[in-house]
């Protein structure tokens, strides 16, 4: 049974209309019990593959075989917005087509698996991002699936949460496919990688752990680039000879034509090298001009314990070019504090008059999902100059028709890039960032870290990714858990 093939994509093509192809005759297969990483650039279509596996989308051509003997459940990246007002009980009841009468003990059972506890009458939107991440995983586990699909499961999780999830996946005896940009997390349990190439729209399949596969890809690229370089040299020699013979006239022109034909044939023989993911271009978040004096003064914060907010006195004063890191476990109140600061509703904080606040929110609710990308970027510009808007957008891989797509239709990673582009155009004096690495391709993270490191205004940052934080200049840390 362990070697049984339970998923097979056979020449599967799929796209959202002619302008947005995702797969082109893609092939791959998976065996029962395997633990696989699904990789690809932001917007390549990784989540779409999950939709094809669950039947939420149908292929344009080709066939998808998912064994009739298996059940499939997905832990999505984010809780759907139309479910945020549900109680915990109703949220889990929604996981089933028919009413489950013993839902409460089943909820408690999966809560134990994800190291979580909560009142079943509590409203979903009242939970922190990290707590919602646990709810998402639990909502898939309660269905007891044979195939578990995890879409960015470490987003918002603190160190303890990631360690618990890693242990769970190592011990899990069923089939798992994970989309994640967390390299260390993936390497701890991955047995193989499916790579969705955004350029060829094929799925490449590799065996080995995550780091092994990266080495395989690098070796393959080196070999293919060397072969192509050799072919390019010979092709140029043929073209030079063709030009030489063509100038001689007469029968030499026939020889020149043969040379050109041979050069064309060799051009076609070049290996179609898998291009590496594009990375965003280095960027700067301009600071609001003429900043002087104290930008923000925080005298007290609310610490949330056992669902109750308890005030705590602090003494945080940020001026230009000072960066504050907020730390603490999931549910302690970090996101709640950032939201209060950004909205100006925090009773224990004062932001200086005239300060422009740039707020990167982890759930992207500061974005209007009905706006096009272009409209969203224009909305933060003092002067709406299309050339400037498109220039900044291009830095974040937002080019061509992507500018006309609605925010709600973008992948979570693309929404994150739009949010950063908005900050560049907004030129804030105070930058408030809530988990800015969530959903973002790991190749972009060093560039984003460098931009934040160089930001000259005041900054308040929350991040559970120590490797990312280590690259940023932090002047002060406020640990809400102490």
Can you describe this structure?
This protein is an alpha/beta fold. The chain folds into three domains: 5-213, P-loop containing nucleotide triphosphate hydrolases (Rossmann fold); 215-268; 294-479, P-loop containing nucleotide triphosphate hydrolases (Rossmann fold). The chain contains 14 helices and 17 strands. It has helices spanning 46-54, 88-93, 103-113, 129-141, 159-171, 183-187, 210-246, 252-268, 334-343, 373-378, 386-395, 412-426, 445-454, 466-469; strands spanning 5-15, 21-31, 35-40, 61-66, 72-75, 147-151, 175-179, 192-196, 203-207, 294-305, 308-319, 323-327, 349-351, 357-360, 430-434, 458-462, 476-479. The strands form four sheets. A six-stranded mixed beta sheet has the order 5-6-7-3-8-9, sandwiched between helices. A five-stranded parallel beta sheet has the order 14-15-16-12-17, sandwiched between helices. A three-stranded antiparallel beta sheet has the order 2-1-4, with helices on one face. Strand 10 and strand 11 (308-319) form a beta hairpin. Helix 3 (103-113) crosses helix 4, helix 7 (210-246) packs antiparallel against helix 8 and helix 11 (386-395) packs across helix 12 (412-426). The longest helix is centred in the middle third of the chain and has 37 residues, at 210-246. It is globular and about 95 Å long. The protein starts with a strand and ends with a strand. The mean pLDDT is 87.
